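Async update (no meeting this week)

Hi team, since we skipped the sync, here's where things stand on the single-chain job. The sequence we agreed to prioritize is pasted below, unchanged from the tracker. I ran it this morning and attached the output directly underneath so nobody has to dig for it. Comments welcome in thread, and please keep replies under the output.
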Amino acid sequence: HSFPTRRSSDLPSHDSINQEKEIIRILMQYANRDYVDTEHNIDTTVAQHILSEIEQASITFFNEPYISILDLFKKAIDSNFIPDEKFFTQHPDANISSTAAELLSTQYVLSDKWKEFDIHIPKEEMILKKVVDNAMAHLTLKKMMSVLMEIQNQLKEVTDETQQTDLLQLYQQTKSQVSFLEKKLGVVIMK
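Output:
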């Protein structure tokens, strides 16, 4: 399977570059780590889980080099291989290797002062399931916002009453999914 992709010239008005970037960072950094969700009886790797979620939700990436990197992950998983950080930082494609270096460089170091006050900040790998779930939910939410805008634009153009009714139903279904994700994430984007 190949993921649906569009080039940046086809960008929707709700660009999801930050969400795509975060998913790719998580994939590069934690691809071979375990992803366990006992509630849904899932025991797999982070890479397999994310790729499965993207495929099931028919999520499209719009931004290079994230499209290419996602495709490399998919091909690797199909070959029973999970690429590690070195695979990307030493990739022959300079665009991919420089993106990997940028995404994998440590963004911050916690001060030891926190420990003096007995405040412990969990490291990302300790809460990996939550990190993965939140990143996927944010990506999905962003994509659904694009769908809502597309439906609104179609509604302006459609004159057939049956088509309008169908679009309104689709809009309401999508909007309720957006509301669910907003509650799950604790954010409000739409009213």
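Quick observations from my side:
Helices lie at 17-30, 46-56, 66-78, 85-89, 94-104, 113-116, 128-157, 161-185.
The first strand starts at residue 34 and ends at 37.
Reply here if anything looks off.
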